[in-house]
Design a protein that fits this description.
426 residues; alpha+beta; eight-stranded mixed β-sheet; three-stranded antiparallel β-sheet; 12 helices
Length: 426
Amino acid sequence: MHDIRFIREYPERFDEGLARRALPPRAAELIALDERRRAVTTRMQAAQARRNDASKAIGAAKAAKDEATAQALMAEVAALKTELPALEAEEKALGEELQQALALIPNLPADDVPVGADEAGNVEVSRWGTPRAFDFAPKEHADLAPALGMDFETGARLSGARFTFLRGDMARLHRALGQFMLDTQTREHGYTECNPPVLVGDGAMYGTDKLPKFAEDSFRTSDGRWLIPTSEVSLTASVMGELLDEAALPIRLSALTLCFRSEAGAAGRDTRGFIRQHQFEKCELVSIVRPEDSEAEHQRMTRAAETILEKLNLPYRKLLLCTGDMGFGARKTYDLEVWLPGQGTYREISSCSNTGDFQARRMNTRYRVAGEQKKTEFVHTLNGSGLAVGRTLVAVIENYQNADGSVTVPDALRPYMGGVNRLELA
């Protein structure tokens, strides 16, 4: 959520930020709407003050036996009582209109975010690892994995497209990956393990910028709750409406949960295989920090995600997303893309974003500045994947495949596999 006071004070800077996202200027329109709202507020306050003054004057007029003045004042008070509800309703309607307009405008990009129209404008920051040289033609996971327990047909028969049924050691490897990720993030990187709800209300979704713009991307239950698209929603919203002590920051939270996405905006993309599912698991990372710490925290979080790939010896590259490829709530995002030899390309496996105070304003989450009795500031929030479990499973299958169709279990996962070192054909 944007601060209308910032827009009033720096309209050019606001419109410049929008222009970098290839969006038209909005400052003048928003300021005009805010001025209308403030004008109504001023009229309402003046009417309330006059009503109070006139009410007091009635008693004085009656005490002076000035019945004519008393009657005139009583008529004025009656008129004001009729006028005030209309002014209150107008102020509320204009306030809601302003909030709705602000809620649909994406975050402004940080100064060092490259300008670009789409993913072609992303900037590669670094690469890690050397793709394996195979002495056979590596297969894509969708061709290799069904014989090892990745059952696309049963998933589709039970639930429709983009659902998969995992069996046997394939299911165990998937579970091992999630546990390994969560253990690494909590034990080595200082995140607190959480087990949050996967059903949330409108407030949590709105506060984490998933509503109102992206309602169609999520599933809603018949009683009005939402299945979380990511546990970023539950974890970040856990501080919704709170006034935190500065000493409590940073707060670092992690959870391994199911996630649900309708993929309404991804029609026709990755329809084959396990890359893009309606239901998947992800190890989420969330940080709540002071504004001055958010840039360093962004680097730290991204590094925590990179560590998982390195422990699994999966080659990857790190990208700084351009303005045209960055998410709605982000002011800066790093993507990690893992090498998939079956496809012969890098594919996204983690996205780590700094949202600044964008979500905090929507959630009304502040912290009390140490040593200051009254001064409060909005926190900064960050979120990232540490990692997406299903996509990591795909990467393991493709990178660790063998000529006979089996898949070797990475060393880092073997303690979680109960002695299983290889997924073999049945």
